[in-house]
Amino acid sequence: RSFLGLGPDAPLDFTAEPKIDGLSLSLRYEGGKLVQAATRGDGAIGENVTANARTIADIPQVLTGDPPEILEVRGEVYMSHADFAALNAGEPARIFANPRNAAAGSLRQLDPAITAARPLKFFAYAWGQISAPFATTQLGAIEKLASFGFQTNPLTRLCRNPAEMIAQWTAIEAQRASLGYDIDGVVYKVNDLALQARLGFRSTTPRWAI
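Above: the chain sequence. Below: its structure as tokens.
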């Protein structure tokens, strides 16, 4: 709070969401239409997988609602436990070690037809380049992404104090075995986007998320 110049009693809300164990993907839309998809790679250099991403049902080709003219959406490509088990059972010669490896290998196929035959899913949870702001809070932005046609994680919650943050972690932990997909933690983010901007980034990670 002192770093932000906030008083000790100033409200500071956070969002809490599951950290999906999949492959990070960035989607660029211009005029509401998907023009490019790239793996996030090392955060600066990724791999162009546009043709493959177009085959994933959870990734809209054309956005709904009122998206910015330029919108880069970031999210996670993953495979459910049930779909992973079915894939391995159907292809005994190609046994994947886990759903994450299966999702990554499927998205990066040279032949988009192979990707299309794989049961990949996508959760949107962040954004990069935008031509105009579309929300003032993290939760509001997630709701906007849903209105544009993206799948967003239903376990994302607004937490108004540390007790609520811990309670949401406990709730997600209790459901972890039955979610149907892999997670590797809970991510907390400062809800106010203006405060996120004030906090900024370290060399590779944001100061407003943990």
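The radius of gyration is 18 Å.
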